[in-house]
Sequence to fold (1211 residues):
Amino acid sequence: MANYSPQHFEPRAKAVNVRGVANRAVATVLTAGLIAQPLMSPLAAIAAPAGDTTDAVKGESPIESTVVAGNQAVVKTAAQLAEESAKQFEAAKAAYDAAQKKADAAGQAQKQAQQQKDQASQAVTDNATEQNAAEVAALQEKIDELKAAVDKAEEQQKKLGDLNGQLDQAKKSVENKTQALKDAKAKQGEAEKALKDAQAKLDAMGRDDYEAAKKDVEDAQAKLDAANAGVKTAEGELEAAKTAAAKAEQAKTDAEAAVTTAQDKKQQTAAALLAATAARDNAQQKFNQAQAALDAATSGTGIDLSALEAAKNAAAGELKAAQTELDAATTADTTAQANLQTAQAAASAAQEKVNAANAAVSSAQTAYDEASGKLGDLTNKYNTAKAAYDQAQQTEADKKAAYDQAVKDRDDKRAEYKAACDAADAAEAASDAASAEVDKLEQQIAELKSNMTVDQDIINSGMLGFMAYISNSSDFTAQQKANASAASSMLTGAPNKDERYDKASWYDSYVDQDMSRETNPLSLEQLRNALTYLDAQNNIRKANGQSELSVSLRMTAAAALNASYSSNIWGHSNLYFDSSENLAGGGGVYMGGETVDTLGWPYTGLYTEEKELFDQEAATNSDLAAHRYDSDYIYWNYNNVYSKCGHYLNIIDAGNEAIGIATGSGKNTDSEVTIFDYSGSASQKDFTVSEFKKLVNDYIDSAYSAGGTQAQKQQLKELQSKLTEAQKKFGTASTAYNAALNKQFDAQEAFKAAGTSMNTAKGEYESAQAATATAKGAYDAAKSEFDGSGIDIDALNQKLEAAKSEATAAQTVLDKANATVTDCQTNASKASARKAKAQGDYDAAKAKSDKANKAYGDATASVKDLTAKCDAAQRDLTNKQDAFSKAKAADDVAQAGVNDAEAAATAAATALSNAQQEVTNKKQALAAAQQEVKSAKAALTTANKAFERYADAQKALDNANVALAAARAGVNTAQEQLDAANQAVEDAKKAIADAQTELAADQALQADLEHVDREASLAAGVTVFNAGWTAQNQLPKLDAAYARYKAAVDAEKGLRQAEADADAKLSDANDAYAAALAELNDAKDALAAAQAEYDKYHPKAEPQAKPQVAQAAAKAPAAKKQAADGALAQTGDNSALAGEVFVIGGAQIYAQALPLAGRFYLTRVFHAYEGDTHFPVWNDAEWRLVSSESFASGANYPYPFAFETYERRRN
Fold:
């Protein structure tokens, strides 16, 4: 087998206490950055496009000049005048269009200037409001802080009075507890004397006789208990046998009834089969007779009946077809003529409707075109806005559904996190309780040992003395003694026949010769601790079908030496052990369960986790799976698997025969490890596990045998047994606590992730709401503009579409009517020709049919009757054959049922016989068990009578022990109460000193607030104190209030300048707009003149509407222009120039700065430190988690932690 040790298994981590996480506890070293909010609200930037304020130069218009020239040119021809008037009209039209565009631009510029003026005026008004609010806020802040300081000082003074009263009470309590301790010690002395007397009395009676008598009683009671159990077992088995017999009897009765039923059914099917057979034979005879009669009638006559019948049928078919064609042709001719007349009338009516519908379409189209030209742009704008509004509403609904789901998910995760916290608290309480029980038992053992005389030489010689005891005793085999001697040589570093066991180079550095040190792997304490790992080791092997390991003395010594090495140098020494070695971090008593489903550390790592890895590999490799219990084969053929699963493979290796286990820490280190050294040699099988455990415990107990009573020794054993059990419970509780902590951490991470998702969904929902509001505004504006146009385009369009639809329908009717007329004319001609032809065909077919009917009737008078009889006989034969087949199948099924029922009846009879025999056997067993009970009771009575006098003495001794334990507990309780009372005095003194310090601080803060110079603070924008006063406190909230006021005052001048500039620009825009409108009116007049001139020389055939000249909907009121210098003021928030302003704690500074912050950065360390300070509690409704990054523990940071960023919610 390979001398190889697999990868190291890391030491288990100590339990981490994160109870404080649920209460937002953070590490002592915590930095939180608080981003200060801007002290001045931003002002909207004012800007406007530069308007064209150039006045138009007035003068004689081209149109006016042309008209004058036209009036003077009297001698020009009419054609020349017409041409000139047309040119003048086009020029006037172009000038008018240009003036209209200029007026529109000037109007837009005037509107923008007015908006900017309104914004600037509103900003000035808002600034004045802000100044007043800031001044009031500063005054209120000072009042609030001063009131808080006064209230706090009063509370501290009251607290001082209460604390002084508590100090007096604590001092009185110390006096009372001191007297109580004296009384308890006196009672302890009395109890010790009573115990000594009771022990002496019991010893005088002979301890060996007492033990023998006691054992007789226990043995007799055990036999009686076993006999009673045997009776109960026999009674249960008898009842079960009776029940089985009753069931077998019923089963036999049921089976016999089933046989009778099956036989009855078989008789019925047999009778039915006989009747069906007779009916089938009779039908066959009748069919044969009918067929013979038909054959006799048709043979030898010389007539071909088939040919005559075929000719008759053919003639009849031709006649029928001719009649049908004649009838159809006649009907079709009549119908075609009527249809032709109807179609011609319908076509005339349809033509009249088409003419009327086309006229209606023309009229509706003209009305729609005129309105559509005016309303086209408004319609497009309205449709676009409505589509955008509909889409925004749908998006908002989707985002709200997503947000609602995210809120639900967050709430679910919060509940899961709270449940995980509660479970972690409960698990911690259970772990603490288990730990307290271990501490209690260890204290009791220490106290008991302190009252017993100890053979210190045995303790000091440790494992070396234990090995010497075996090698020098005649109670052990030669092999055991030889192996013990070899182990002693290894422990002392003496030369050895096998160089593997010679003294290692590191022996002197890591092997501690002080074997009385309790954590030394060579100490008896650690030797006893190592015993706790053995049963679990063998139970694992048994669960895997492998033999139990024996204990090797040499491997035990090897494990102790290697534990000394590995606790100093983490890794394997590769010395001393035979075949393989497992190493685990951590030492002491094994605290897990002893079955594979209850294992604890280190077996959960060495076995459970590595088994899962191996099973994954073996699932796809049959060869690997086949050699699971051969670690040597896997090492040489699948080394990569062995490197991952070697601990597991060493434990279950079929080649291992013996084991040695050691635990503890070597010289110069406190780090403990546990070593498992294996041997594949049968010569190393020194003891079974139970033998070795008894041997070790008896040897260690012998150290206390020199002194101490038998009761003390017995009590020590019981306490040690209880301690072992308590340590296992503590291990289980610790494992459960660590698992609960992991679940708590996972639940917290899930809760934080759900919170982040919820905040993201909320932001998207709020954005969607804003987008919907914007889209609705655009939609409402477009609809209002559309509705205000006064044109009902929908009604006009509906009228046009209705007219078109009517025209289309009328045309369709006309086309169909014309087509129908054509079809009817064609059909009428075809129908007349068809009728004439059909009449001729019918006459010929009638003559042919009459002739064929006569010939066939003469020949077939008698044959028909015989044929009908033969056909009927054939049908009856077929029916009777079917009935016979069904009856035969039913009879076969019935016979099978009889066979099955008879077999079941035979089996039931056999089962009943067996069950009745079993009842007889169980009755005999019950009688024998009852006899054993009777004998055991007699033996118990005899043993109890012999033990009575010893029991009374032992009871007195037990009562004395109980009384002494109670007295000692009373002393301990009294001492604890006295210590608590003394501590209460010290706590009260410290609380008084702390309260006095806080009172002085509160009074200093009150004095600082009373010396604030309000006017100077408002002017400076920061807190200013009265001249000569030295402040002891920072007042950040008050500083912020004064800064807010000064910021508003500083902004006022710029805002007023911006208002003046905007007013000047508005005046300029008003003047430009008035000039543009005047120019537009001039162009309008010139256009009208040119139109009149044009109309003189261009007469129209019929009246037409005059061109419409668009006018501005409204004229801007004339405004007096104000001359003012200066550019447009630009204002805004410049607080961002300072970047992020950080406030770094203490906790009190955090609490004061938090209301001013817009963001804070938090580092969570998932560990509770002694003397923890806490970040202030924040309101989740005001803050949202925007980012979180988690880190596991590692080499540079022993505990898990997370970086989190919170931002203030914006409503």
Summary: The chain has 21 helices and eight strands.
